TrEMBL record:
Pathway: Amino-acid degradation; 4-aminobutanoate degradation. Keywords: Aminotransferase, Pyridoxal phosphate, Transferase. Its EC number is 2.6.1.19, 2.6.1.22. Gene3D superfamilies: Aspartate Aminotransferase, domain 1, Type I PLP-dependent aspartate aminotransferase-like (Major domain). This is (S)-3-amino-2-methylpropionate transaminase. It comes from Streptomyces salyersiae. InterPro entries: 4NH2But_aminotransferase_bac (IPR004632), Aminotrans_3 (IPR005814), Aminotrans_3_PPA_site (IPR049704), Class-III_PLP-dep_AT (IPR050103), PyrdxlP-dep_Trfase (IPR015424), PyrdxlP-dep_Trfase_major (IPR015421), PyrdxlP-dep_Trfase_small (IPR015422).
Length: 446
């Protein structure tokens, strides 16, 4: 790991003068469609700290969107990827293969739920993994329809835009979208009309009714769901929802795909979030946390489903790049050695305790409507006092106040009113608490 002191340090305004200068160059050279949460330019990062070009050290509650769970310069990732880099950067696995790719697939077979025979295919991005899961499910079932859920997020390519629920900013103006994609309700406990205790049973019944009546179960190739919804607002489907949908898929020969791209690899305190209710998906898509920051993604699943696509039907020039595979092996080694599942559960304990305290302390019109999430995937949903009306303005103001104090936080949610916390799992507890102190003070600025 790079030896960055694990201490917050704010020396300049945030962003500082050097970042402002770089931002001007960026605005001239980089397409406007690529945004940034906080235009602070990074010099180095590691543990729970991002150091910028002005020498400021920010506490990282984002992990580059749930990617650097082992830190942004984890020793085993740097060591293995550097060694691989010196040996060779690329041959293309489809031209002459290499061991690292096979080893990552072996690890995926061990770590993902279920003791059935499993195989994997590797790609570069999360969206690419989801696209390939759809290809594989269609080849296996010889059906075309794909079912996804309200508030779901699956990427920015053409097919995955169709799978994604939210229009702005992901889809607006970018259509037409791929056909044969159908969206059904999800058990969003906090906003379910009859309350969270009924959401699991009622939402699954509604979703299944829509699938059978509007699509026809016999036409459905795949049902794709995030076991904890990420961009949509860190929504844990109410208990009972996922098992009901998984059972329905099984009974109807539909491939059940868990999109664990954000929730996987120790993020929720288990290797995969679907383990929480004992779900064994037919296919799992992974990316983000898999390789300590290097671009890698995978589809893993039942061997007979994974083998349904003909030879040459899957792949890509860079898929399973050897340096990224070495990074993944280093990240997995780190997760095992440091028991990052236990670390994630401890982060949940600290964060939820503090956030509930903050909610209790806020004057009667508490703006914190809901505290939720699992492991180190925790969020608060902000609402107008005394209502459940989403308060996107308060959310943006809180994020801004945190940024000014050197705490990097991200927002999400269909209504833009969720503040989400995704610290690296290796963050020190003192930094974690300091970040929460900053958040607490930010509430006073509202
Ligand atoms: C981020 C994300 C994706 C897309 O991954 P990219 O690497 O950005 O293409 C897909 N699904 C989920 C659940 C994600 O969080």
């Amino acid at each position: 790991m790079s030896d960055i002191p694990q201490e917050r340090r704010v020396l300049t305004a945030i962003p500082g003068p050097k970042s402002v200068e770089l931002q001007a160059r960026r605005t001239a050279a980089v397409a406007a469609g690529v945004g940034s949460t906080l235009p602070v330019f990074t010099a180095r990062a590691g543990g729970g700290i991002i150091e910028d070009v002005d020498g400021n050290r920010l506490i990282d509650f984002g992990s580059g969107i749930a990617v650097t769970s082992v830190g942004a310069s984890a020793e085993a990732v740097v060591r293995r990827a550097s060694a691989q880099l010196a040996d060779f950067t690329h041959t293309c696995f489809m031209v002459t293969p290499y061991e690292g790719y096979v080893e990552v697939c072996e690890r995926l077979a061990e770590l993902t739920p279920g003791d059935h025979a499993k195989k994997s295919a590797l790609f570069n991005s999360g969206a690419e993994a989801v696209e390939n899961a759809v290809k594989i499910a269609r080849a296996y079932t010889k059906r075309t329809a794909v079912v996804v859920f309200d508030h779901g997020y699956h990427g920015r390519t053409n097919l995955t835009m169709a799978l994604t629920a939210k229009n702005m900013p992901y889809k607006q103006g970018f259509g037409p979208f791929a056909p044969e994609v159908y969206r059904v309700p999800v058990a969003y406990g906090y906003r379910w009309p009859t309350g969270p205790e009924n959401a699991g049973a009622e939402a699954s019944a509604q979703a299944i009714d829509e699938i059978t009546k509007q699509i026809g179960a016999e036409n459905v190739a795949a049902i794709i769901i995030e076991p904890v919804l990420g961009e949509g607002g860190f929504i844990e489907p109410a208990k009972g929802f996922l098992p009901a949908i998984a059972r329905f898929a099984k009974d109807n020969g539909i491939v059940f795909v868990a999109d664990e791209i954000q929730s996987g690899f120790c993020r929720t305190g288990q290797w995969f979030a679907c383990e929480d209710e004992g779900i064994v998906p037919d296919l799992i898509t992974t990316a983000k946390g898999i390789a300590g920051g290097l671009p890698l993604s995978a589809v893993t699943g039942r061997a007979e489903i994974m083998d349904a696509a003909h030879s040459g039907g899957l792949g890509g020039t860079y898929g399973g790049n050897p340096v990224a595979c070495a990074g993944a092996l280093g990240a997995i080694e780190t997760m095992r050695e440091l028991d990052l599942n236990a670390r994630a559960r401890r982060i949940e304990e600290v964060m939820k305790g503090r956030l509930e305290e903050m909610r209790a302390k806020l004057p009667n019109g508490a703006v914190i409507g809901d505290v939720r999430g699992r492991g180190a995937m925790i969020a608060i949903e902000l609402v107008k006092p005394g209502t459940k009306d989403p308060d996107a303005a308060a959310t943006a103001a809180l994020a801004k106040a945190c940024h000014a104090e050197g705490l990097l936080v991200l927002t999400c949610g269909t209504y833009g009113n969720v503040l989400r916390f995704l610290p690296p799992l290796v963050i020190g507890e003192d930094l974690l608490n300091e970040g929460l102190d900053i958040l607490e003070r930010a509430f006073a600025t509202l």
